[in-house]
User: Fold glutamate decarboxylase from Cyclotella cryptica.
Amino acid sequence: MIQYSITRPLDITQSTIDRVLKPLVRLVAALTDCHLRPLISNLMSDETFDKDAIITALVEETRKLRAMVSKLEEKIEHGEAFDTTFAASKYASRHLKREEIPSDGMPAKHVVRLINDVHLCDFNPLLNTSSYVNVTSEEEEQAVALIGAQINIADASVYPSSIELHNSTVNMIANLWHAPKPPNGQDYVGSGTVGSTEACLLAGLALKFRWRKWYAKRHNLTDHEILAVRPNLVISSAYQAAWEKLFRYFDVEAKIVKPNLLKDKMAVNAKNLVAQCDEKTIAVVGILGNHYNGNYDPIWDIDKELALLNAEKGWQIVRFLEFMTLIVIVHVLLTQCHVALQKGIHVDAASGGFVAPFQELSGKGTPGHYDFRLPNVLSISSSGHKFGESICGTGWIVFRQREDLAEHIAVTVTYLGGSSDSLTLNFSRPASGPYVQYYKLMRLGKEGYMTKVENQMKVAAYLRNFISNLTHPNGQKRFQILDGGDTCCLPVVSARLNPDLGLHYDDKDLQHALSESHWYVSGYSLGFENPATFEFEDIFSDIDQASTMFRIVVKSNLSQGLAENLAHKIKETLAVLDDLDEGYEGVKQKIAAMKAKAAVLSEIPNVHKPTDKRFKALAKTVLFSKHMERKKKERSNISGSIVSQATC
Ligand SMILES: *Cc1c(COP(=O)(O)O)cnc(C)c1O
Assistant:
């Protein structure tokens, strides 16, 4: 339209329009929000317009535009447009919680500020003794993590060298756990994962498919018929919620064995565990450091029991040729390794995988082996981001062998010049985990890990000793210690308030009260939803589910100095809780009484309102009780999903 109206009467050539007028008009229209528009539309409707007037108008607009652009340039150059404080910028009033992407962007430093503000409202991770996940890192390590964050470790064709680093890390870890050496100088069989959960799921899948093949052969079932048989997995009720995912997602029946809390300090009884096995069992899980109190399941005993059972039942892997069997046996004898028995062990060494080997190196090991030195151990998983000291999102799975085990979940990826196995649940992921794990293994060496673990055990011993010596004003002990102590255990302190004291507050209340001094210590109820029955049951055979306990995980950042502060804060908090004599249980009555009193007081003039110490303490308690009620409500709203109180 413009072209037509302007060109004809003024007789301007097409090329002038293309080169000069069109871009100019577009620019002017965009930048001035169409000062020219009225003019142009006038021109279009008026046949008798004046050529000079258009040119003058254009010249004028161009002059204005030039002035504007140079002013903007000047502003940008001096940083005026962006260089103001966050508080003085328009972004300070921008809502954090959003439903929609904002229409315009914002300066980088202000986005960082927004995100920092969000994180500010989290607990202080360095004072969180509830979680096992590493929260400290060196500056160099952060740089390494950043390099890794930009590498897709699933992409073997672009990052073959990074995959070699990943494989080296698997090798070092497999070696630490005494995995049998693979033939022909090959890499050990395993993979980096996103924490132990993925590692446990992968092991579970490999074991399930291995079992399926064996069971189908044994019972002459077709590929289709075997799908109707539901396998099971045998595990202690002190399992971590990762296993609940396996039961649910991969349709595996849970066969749960309840350990003893007081007598065995949560270590499962090997005989009871293995007794649960039947033909449909894909594996027995031994937990190397349960998350409640850090105690180790006796993997060494489980292995013995399983060997007896496998022999008794004749649960051997069925090999199709006698001759082949002979060769395999000779091979086994020569290489001391390849497992021929059907029922094997998966060791869930989420925490212990990077603790037990170093305790052993410093002469404070377990009474028996806990890793691939035991012939029935088929796979081991661990969280690199727990005591492995790597960045959050690091985990490891190592298989005894590829044959009839890892191969069941391997997807071969070919790339230019080679092929590699992908053993993980998903493909693309950052290389940060393997990168930082490699950094930490190289940085600390075995010596470093050994000393670090020894220090952590010492700090745990200090805390355990301190709280076990605390006494109630009536002379009785404040706490009953529930962890495994100094050996055969993670650096964890677990205890519960002495039940003989008949206190009105419990360990969860202690957790909440203690959080006022910024410390986070987790309290637990000793009940769980049994995935086999969907009933809420006692976790341990000798303690009922209404009981509570708490744990303190001594991570590498919990220095002796910090531990001393925590110990004294526990002592002070107990005194406050004692002071609230009727405790949390009595809060509702107290509130009712207070309200009644306030109502009476408001009717009677000139009487002082209650302002004593008790009143203040009460106000504090009201807050806690509200918090507890909210928590309870949250719990009741999530029926149908897995209810788990486990933290990682
Ligand atoms: C923490 C933990 C897991 C899960 O590990 P993530 O690394 O959090 O995925 C599994 N098993 C045990 C025994 C654990 O302590």
